[in-house]
Specification:
Layout: H1 11-20, E1 38-40, H2 41-44, H3 48-69, E2 82-91, E3 97-111, E4 117-128, H4 134-142, H5 161-165
Antiparallel strand pairs: 1-2, 2-3, 3-4
Length: 170
């Protein structure tokens, strides 16, 4: 985007100019100048060490899903369910988790009598809430122990991330 193009300028320059002065149109309005109240968990922390803690906590809970999937959700038509992303909205001023959404993808195919394949793919977005900070969520999922991180009670609740998948995944 920022590399010079033959003849001068960059793609970034061209896109910016197009948005600022569209051909035959008017400039796009600025939607809001107020600071955002929420941040994604991946963007909440500014240090690499804290971002790594979040990445490790997500890896632990995704690993927990992978460990139980074959005995639960992956026994359905969507036997190849995979975690695609886990997103949490964090209140910037307090660090409190407003809500998390865990996105999964899966597919299956069936062969028809004529040899044609009927393929089905689908995504699932499963949400869960809690009452606590991002640091508390990270501590919950990263804590040492023999229990599965996906089944640990979320801060301020008796429910787990696993409970949040019920009724959402096939």
């Amino acid at each position: 985007m920022h590399e010079p193009l033959p003849g001068g300028g960059t793609i970034d320059d061209a896109v910016g100019e197009c948005i600022a002065h569209p051909l035959g149109g008017t400039q796009l309005p600025v939607l809001s100048t107020t600071p955002l109240t929420y941040a994604a968990a991946t963007d909440y922390y500014t240090t690499a060490a804290n971002r790594q803690k979040w990445t490790a906590a997500v890896a632990a809970v995704v690993g927990g899903f992978d460990n139980i999937c074959g005995d639960t959700y992956c026994g359905s038509d969507f036997g190849d369910l995979r975690s695609v992303d886990l997103l949490c909205a964090i209140t910037k001023s307090t660090g409190n988790v407003k809500r998390c959404t865990w996105v999964f993808g899966g597919s299956y195919a069936q062969a028809a009598a004529n040899g044609a394949l009927a393929e089905t793919s689908r995504t699932f977005a499963c949400s869960f809430g809690m009452h606590g900070t991002l640091a508390q969520l990270i501590a919950t999922w990263s804590a040492a122990g023999s229990d599965n991180p996906i089944q640990r009670a979320l801060p301020g609740t008796t429910a787990s991330a696993y409970d949040g998948l019920g009724g959402c995944l096939p």
